[in-house]
What does this fold into?
Amino acid sequence: MLMHGDHIVCISHGEDADGLICAALLANLRGAKPILVTYEEFKGALIDVNYPTEELYICDLCVRDELIGEILRIAEFARVIIVDHHPTAEALLRRLERSGVQVVYSSKDCASVLLYDQNKVELGREGARLAAYAAVSDQFEDGPIASRIISMFDRQILEHEALILTHALFRITSNDFRQRVVEELGRYIIPHRISGLVEAAVSHLEHMASLMEEIQSKAVRLGRLAYFDASDEPSTGAVANLILDVLDVDVGVSYKPAIGGRVNISIRGRRGIGLHLGEITREVAMRHGGFGGGHDRASGASIHKEKLVRFIEDLEMALSQPLKPF
Ligand SMILES: [Mn+2]
It folds into this structure.
C-alpha cells in the first residue's frame, strides 16, 4: 500500500458497506486516509480539510447545497473528486464541475462500482470483488456496470460474503471497528475472515429475529396496514420493512420520537399494491400540519406527535380508496 500521510484523504459514508468499500479501494489505490462519516458529521469533516491535503475524494455521500462553499474552498488548494449515486440536483453537480471538481456520478450503479470502473486496470480482480460486495449490499446488483462485475464471480459465495459484511455493519457502529474493517478490506481480506465480523452479523440476525417476534405480538393492524412503535430501534425504515416480512399486510408503518415534539414516520409498501405511497404520505402529512413524501413503495413523514393516531387513520383511509393507477 502506498503511503501519502494525510496528503490524500477520502471522506466516505461510514454507515454502510458501499461507503466503507469506497474508502478501502482508495486506501489500496492511492494510500488515501479514510475518514468515515455520518450525514451529521459530513460538514465538520469537510471543514477539517486543509493544506497540505492535495487530493480529496468524497464518496457515497449526497452533496447538499449548503456544503458547496466548503467544497469550493478545498478545491482552491486540492484536487476534489466526488463519487456518488444518490439522486442529486444535476445543477449542483454541474456547478461543482465548472469550478474544477471532478464528478463521477450515475444513479444506476453504487459508488464503489463507479469508483472501480474508473480504476479497473489498477484495481484488478480483487478490486472488482470488493465493488461487487458493495453492489449486493446496496441492492444495486442490476446496475449496468455491477451486473457485469458480479457475473465474474461465484454468485452465492459473493452474496454470502457481502451480506456478512452488510449485517455486521448494522450491529457495529464504533468508528474504530469500521476503520479496521476498511483497512482489512483494503488488503483484500474476505469479510468472513475479518475478526469479529461473523459474530456481529449473527448478532444482527438474532436481533432481527427477536424484533420480528415482538412485531408479531405488538404491531397493531388497521385495514391494509400495520403499525409498530420503533422508539428503541436505530432505523424506522428497517422496522417498517420487517412489518411486511412478519404480517400479511400491504403497508408497514413505523415511527419514533424526534426533536421538537415531533415523530418521524417510515412507511413501506409491498410490491404491486398499485398505490404511490410518497404522494399519499405527502398529502396526509400536510393535512396534519407536517411534511412528507418519497417513492411509490417507500415514504416518510414528520408530524407533531399529537397527530400521530389521526395521521395513521387517515393514511389507512387513503390506502383503502378504490385503486387508481399512477
Ligand atoms: Mn451507496
In short: The chain has a mean pLDDT of 93.
